[in-house]
Write a structure and sequence with these properties.
Elements lengths: L9 H18 L7 H10 L4 H10 L8 H13 L6 H4 L3 H14 L4 H13 L1 H7 L5 H20 L5 E2 L1 H17 L3 H16 L5 E2 L1 H28 L10 H11 L9 H5 L10 H26 L1 H24 L13 H14 L6 H19 L8 H13 L4 E4 L2 H6 L4 E2 L8 E3 L5 H4 L7 E5 L1 H4 L4 H8 L3 E6 L2 E5 L3
Parallel strand pairs: 1-2, 3-5, 3-6, 4-5
Antiparallel strand pairs: 6-8, 7-8
Length: about 500
């Protein structure tokens, strides 16, 4: 990351952003919504602002702990239809482009580094996957990227002795986005801001009056946001997702964050815990690991030469601290921590990779081409390969609705919000109102005395059939599996 007196031209930035916008449109798919996305739409579809505020103040789920994102989606839904699915997912595109713009404009005096970082961002398979999810992860990434760009400007001397309104606004917006998109972002905002202060100790920049007003306003907003989060923790007791956090979760999170995911098996295969399923993919994973490892090592060395070992240790603690805290909270709260819960960690990884690409000389630059090519293959696989497709709730809903139209009994052992999005009527009583019977994680007594259903839709049994009651019922009554899509199975009563 050596200082370069050349400047990335506005024309180049414009064409790069245009390219990234087109790429972003190609990334977005129209696959079926999955459970959490349907939950987002349910809250976004509230009729008015008063209803939305009533919901967020009484909700006992973790969705209330991502207030800025949920409000953003509430506004998005009032402008853009919620059908088909891609019109909802495209709400991630503005955040993606804001992150790219922050890199290209904020680091335009480091043109090669900025282009490398922007290209890595555009091709990272982890980001491709979550561009297709109507959840706050891309918004989190953007907040973290804004803060990282501010810290980089101060660290490399791009920022002058005074922190003016522009740089303070970037810090304020980045911090508020990161903290407000999810409570998980608070620790990251703290460590990113800590790194900024660490880099500021050398030239001790002063804050202009306008910069001070912006920063002070942001601090007040953060205090109010912190009070709201405290309310959700102490009063509402937001419940975590069911699951456990262990070594396997840590390994899978690293696997996703580094960009391996598209070159390996699908998520449902990983959930089986059968490591043997990775064997056919080992040559591709090993090649990517070798290339990424070389460039990461070069990046660490380049950053160490530029800033010294002490700064690297501070940088490492700032990146690792929130990761450890997130896993510790997941372990204590019996919640499953996945790569998406560590989205801001993707930003320092991309910075180190970009530094590594910039530092390689001569024939070693072929490793840069290899990394870009392998990332592109991994990303395209995430986008198009069937093994990486989401569970097809759309088809499951169509089967349920067809059966209901014939006055057949349907059990819906799955998410209620997915059923709502795909217009599957639910009821707790079979046969009433021509609705499917909703049975989330039932006990044995919940099934006793019920008429045997003609069709059963079972999705994510680790979530909705916690006690294995439905699985036992299906097996003991010899139901026939008619369809399976990753973690969704559809069963029909034996003739």
């Amino acid at each position: 990351m050596e200082r370069n007196d050349s400047l990335l031209s506005l024309r180049t930035i414009f064409f790069l952003l245009l390219f990234f916008a087109i790429a972003g449109l190609l990334i977005i798919n129209n696959q079926s919504f999955w459970m959490d996305e349907a939950n987002t739409i349910d809250k976004a579809s509230l009729p008015d602002l008063a209803s939305w505020f009533r919901w967020i103040l009484v909700d006992r789920n973790s969705d209330c702990q991502m207030p800025f994102y949920m409000f953003y989606m509430f506004c998005w839904q009032k402008i853009v239809p919620v059908h088909p699915e891609w019109l909802v997912r495209i709400s991630n595109l503005p955040w993606f482009l804001l992150a790219e713009a922050a890199v290209l404009f904020g680091l335009r005096r480091l043109p090669r580094f900025a282009v490398a970082l922007a290209l890595l961002t555009a091709l990272h398979p982890f980001l491709w996957y979550y561009m297709n999810e109507a959840r706050p992860y891309i918004m989190q990434f953007t907040g973290a990227m804004l803060l990282a760009v501010v810290a980089c400007r101060v660290a490399t001397g791009l920022q002058k002795a005074k922190l003016d309104a522009d740089i303070c606004l970037a810090w304020a917006v980045g911090t508020l986005i990161l903290c407000g998109s999810s409570m998980l972002g608070v620790a990251w905002a703290g460590t990113f801001s800590g790194v900024l202060l660490w880099f500021s100790r050398k030239n001790r920049p002063t804050i202009t009056r306008s910069g001070g007003i912006i920063s002070g306003t942001a601090v007040v907003a953060l205090i109010l946001l912190g009070g709201f989060y405290l309310h959700t923790l102490l009063v509402q007791h937001a419940k975590p997702y069911p699951g456990t956090t262990g070594v396997a979760n840590i390994i899978f999170a690293i696997y996703e964050l580094l960009g391996f995911a598209g070159l390996g098996p699908g998520r449902s295969e990983f959930r089986t815990g059968n490591i043997g399923l990775c064997i056919p993919w080992l040559p591709y994973l090993a090649l990517y690991g070798l290339v990424a490892g070389v460039i990461l090592t070069a990046g660490f060395r380049a950053v160490c030469r530029k800033f010294g070992l002490q700064t690297i240790l501070v940088f490492g603690l700032a990146a690792i601290g929130p990761v450890v805290l997130t896993f510790a909270c997941g372990k204590a709260g019996h919640a499953r921590v996945l790569g998406r819960h560590l989205m801001p960690a993707c930003v320092p990884l991309l910075f180190v990779l970009a530094a590594g690409m910039r530092s390689l000389k001569g024939n070693k630059r072929l490793m840069n081409i290899a990394l870009i090519a392998l990332m592109a293959v991994s990303a395209l696989s995430i986008r198009f390969a069937q093994r990486h497709a989401r569970d097809d709730f759309r088809y499951a809903a169509a089967v349920a609705n067809e059966a209901l139209a014939k006055s057949l009994v349907v059990w819906w052992v799955s998410d209620q919000f997915v059923a709502g999005y795909y217009s599957v009527p639910l009821d707790a009583v079979p046969g009433r109102n021509a609705a499917a019977v909703w049975l989330p994680h039932p006990l044995a007594e919940d099934l006793s005395g019920r008429a045997k259903p003609d069709w059963v839709v079972l999705a994510r049994p680790d979530v909705y059939d916690l006690y294995g009651t439905v699985a036992h019922f299906l097996d003991s009554n010899h139901y026939q599996k008619q369809y399976q899509s990753h973690d969704i199975t559809i069963w029909r009563k034996a003739d």
